């Protein structure tokens, strides 16, 4: 089962890496956009599930597990939670396009709450073992969890806020995908001892400005149409 999960995990990982950017090149809502988006999303769900299985298997059934392997395993679980929560958020904002504040569906509060708590626990653990990646990377999860909770709590500032939130959710999920590949996959493929620390944070540094760019672009479009509340800062 471990080997089977590992194979599925690797295959789904490459599919996700390949399809991450494809929906951006197709018109929003088009057949190709939805098709490639669903392939990416399903791949991320598979990655999340197999990540948890691989991590728990090593923690519970490997008597020779080292502290480094244990840390790797729990970080893999955190990445799985981050991937699942952001992908689900990207889907849920599409389902509730007419969200008007104080969202009442418990699952949409529970998932970011789990992400927030896991990020805090992961960061504290990383600090305790003096691991920079485990200490600082989870703060991205804290930020994403709070932004999701904020969206579900308050009324959106313009009619198509869900477009920005959907894009943010999926690209944030992409950060988890690329980071996992850079930190775990690439060193094994290219026979490296470990990825340098600056490379760990490169996906977030590159993709986060893209999220901001597309978000600002969408907001400016709706501001010109007079459909944004100009009394609130963009």
TrEMBL record:
UniProt entry tagged with the keyword Transmembrane helix: yes
The keyword Membrane is assigned to this record: yes
Superkingdom of origin: Bacteria
Signal peptide: none
Bilayer-spanning residue ranges: 6-26, 38-60, 72-94, 106-127, 133-152, 164-185, 197-216
Alphabetically ordered keywords of this record: Membrane, Transmembrane, Transmembrane helix
Record's protein name: DUF2306 domain-containing protein
Organism: Salicibibacter cibi
């Amino acid at each position: 089962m471990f080997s089977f999960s590992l194979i599925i995990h690797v295959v789904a990982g490459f599919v996700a890496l390949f399809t991450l950017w494809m929906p951006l090149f197709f018109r929003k809502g088009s057949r190709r956009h939805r098709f490639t988006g669903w392939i990416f999303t399903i791949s991320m769900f598979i990655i999340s599930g197999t990540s948890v299985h691989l991590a728990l298997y090593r923690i519970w059934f490997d008597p020779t597990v080292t502290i480094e392997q244990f840390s790797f395993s729990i970080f893999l679980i955190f990445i799985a939670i981050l991937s699942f929560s952001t992908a689900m958020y990207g889907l849920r904002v599409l389902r509730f396009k007419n969200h008007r504040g104080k969202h009442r569906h418990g699952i949409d509060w529970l998932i970011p709450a789990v992400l927030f708590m896991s990020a805090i626990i992961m960061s504290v653990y990383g600090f305790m073992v003096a691991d920079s990646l485990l200490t600082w990377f989870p703060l991205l999860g804290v930020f994403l969890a709070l932004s999701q909770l904020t969206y579900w709590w308050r009324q959106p500032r313009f009619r198509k806020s869900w477009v920005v939130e959907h894009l943010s959710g999926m690209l944030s999920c992409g950060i988890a995908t690329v980071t996992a590949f850079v930190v775990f996959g690439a060193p094994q493929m290219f026979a490296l001892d470990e990825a340098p620390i600056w490379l760990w944070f490169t996906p977030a540094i590159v993709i986060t400005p893209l999220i901001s760019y597309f978000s600002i672009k969408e907001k400016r479009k709706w501001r010109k149409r007079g459909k944004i509340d100009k009394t609130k800062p963009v």
